[in-house]
């Protein structure tokens, strides 16, 4: 049985181990805590909506411990902590137990532990009595046989001696109303000396994509007396060396070497290519939601991948969501939208809305990810569409899973895209995509896939 300390409007943490679920923490950080307690926390489920991932909360359910963590679906940060079965967990406040096999969480016990509060609220329809503290609420089921009495016209209930109800559920949240609670900003205690992304802007010129401008934040200098949030702006430009990227973004979360290229079969001369002694490599920045691919020979940036971290995708929980902003010139005229109005693409855009104004490759490439030891993929395949020097990976629910930006070896002029689409300026296609992907084989050759190993919890949709 977990022995946990309750901090109203902040957290629920272990009194014997060095961990706590903190309001505002990212989904992946909560999962990391659960994974660190393997064998102690069991039977974990992740609940989400496949069809409406932006309007339905993401929930980590721990039925064997009576705890439920509710995350905002857009920010993917913890907004509510529920203890829905008080019999499965021990709870303390200021090191004083108020719920355990020896201590029954009655109204008197709660008031004794937490002090005075405003009059409770009684819902006659649900037969539920609620005591609210700031950032903390207790729910008491009331037997219909009991006739509560009111004092001075207030909502406080008085029960016959020995008939005081017992807490059935406890909720920790931010603010004064659980229904209006929102996740707070990422707490400084959760920074863990990492960089986090505020926003990413794709840099475009007349000849295509140049790179990425990142608005970042960290906990500031470790020499300061009090930790504080520090904001900074950095850029990644195609052609930057791995030293340039590390200087701007710090050390990557992981380095992944592409020891094999499963797309080389789509090259016209794949059977004549000798095995190279070098391999391209990725810098994986999980907290920024991006990967940077470097050329094996020159060590220069040649590709950037931005991840949206939607539940139901193979890489879900590996990356934080990349809050990118991509602006493209429209190819098509649609009703009530002028042709010169740009196409705004973000991490929340749907592919069918984007495709109504652009002209991507007609036939997508079907991408089926699988682990090196387990070829099963319960999430299914995704579809990759090429457009100019961009590859859109689209999930079956029509949301964009990732966007790959790369530098074409033969730069094209954006204004001439409609006239050149479907044509290749060179006869060879390589794994680095020498031209914009205008056919299925070109798109396959342009597609590079980062597969950093990452342990996952069981997911139940």
TrEMBL record:
Any one GO cellular component localisation term in the record: trans-Golgi network
One Pfam family here: PHAF1
Gene Ontology BP terms: Golgi to plasma membrane protein transport
Residue stretches in coiled coil: none
Regions that span the bilayer: none
Chain positions covered by the region annotation Disordered: 422-461
UniProt-listed InterPro entries: PHAF1 (IPR005373), PHAF1/BROMI (IPR039156)
Taxonomic superkingdom: Eukaryota
Composition skew (Polar residues), residue ranges: 451-461
Compositional bias of kind Low complexity: 422-441
Similarity comment: family membership: Belongs to the PHAF1 family.
Protein name: Uncharacterized protein
Organism of provenance: Anopheles arabiensis (Mosquito)
């Amino acid at each position: 049985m977990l022995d946990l300390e309750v901090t109203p409007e902040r957290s629920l943490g272990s009194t014997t181990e060095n961990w706590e679920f903190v309001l505002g923490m990212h989904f992946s950080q909560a999962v990391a805590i659960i994974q660190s307690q393997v064998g102690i926390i069991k039977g974990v489920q992740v609940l989400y909506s496949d069809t409406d991932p932006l309007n339905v909360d993401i929930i980590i359910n721990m039925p064997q411990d009576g705890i439920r963590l509710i995350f905002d679906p857009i920010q993917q940060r913890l907004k509510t902590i529920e203890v829905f079965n008080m019999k499965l967990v021990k709870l303390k406040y200021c090191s004083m137990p108020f719920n355990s096999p020896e201590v029954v969480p009655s109204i008197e016990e709660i008031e004794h532990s937490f002090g005075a509060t405003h009059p409770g609220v009684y819902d006659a329809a649900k037969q539920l009595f609620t005591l609210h503290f700031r950032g903390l609420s207790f729910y008491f089921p009331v037997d219909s046989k009991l006739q509560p009495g009111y004092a001075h016209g207030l909502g406080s209930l008085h029960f016959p001696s020995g008939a005081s109800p017992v807490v059935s559920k406890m909720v920790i949240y931010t603010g004064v109303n659980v229904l209006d609670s929102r996740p707070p900003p990422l707490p400084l205690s959760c920074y863990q000396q990492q960089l986090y992304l505020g926003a990413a802007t794709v840099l475009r010129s007349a000849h295509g994509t140049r790179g990425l401008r990142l608005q970042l934040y960290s906990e500031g200098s470790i020499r300061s007396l009090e930790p504080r949030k520090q904001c900074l702006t950095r850029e990644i430009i195609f052609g930057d060396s791995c030293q340039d990227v590390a200087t701007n973004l710090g050390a990557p979360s992981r380095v992944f070497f592409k020891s094999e290229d499963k797309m080389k079969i789509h090259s016209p001369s794949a059977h004549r290519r000798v095995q190279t002694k070098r391999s391209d490599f990725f810098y994986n920045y999980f907290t920024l939601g991006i990967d940077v691919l470097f050329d094996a020979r020159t060590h220069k940036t040649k590709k950037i991948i931005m991840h949206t971290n939607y539940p139901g995708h193979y890489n879900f929980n590996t990356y934080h969501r990349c809050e990118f902003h991509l602006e493209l010139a429209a190819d098509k005229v649609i009703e009530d939208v002028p042709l010169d109005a740009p196409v705004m693409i973000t991490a929340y855009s749907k592919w069918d809305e984007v495709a109504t104004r652009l002209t991507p490759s007609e036939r997508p490439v079907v991408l089926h990810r699988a682990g090196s030891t387990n070829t099963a993929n319960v999430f299914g395949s995704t579809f990759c569409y090429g457009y100019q020097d961009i590859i859109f990976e689209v999930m079956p629910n029509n949301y964009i899973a990732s966007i790959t930006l790369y530098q074409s070896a033969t730069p094209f002029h954006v204004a001439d895209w409609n006239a050149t689409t479907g044509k290749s300026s060179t006869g060879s296609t390589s794994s680095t995509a020498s031209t914009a992907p205008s056919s299925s084989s070109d798109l396959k050759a342009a597609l590079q896939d980062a597969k950093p190993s990452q342990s996952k919890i069981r997911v139940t949709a």
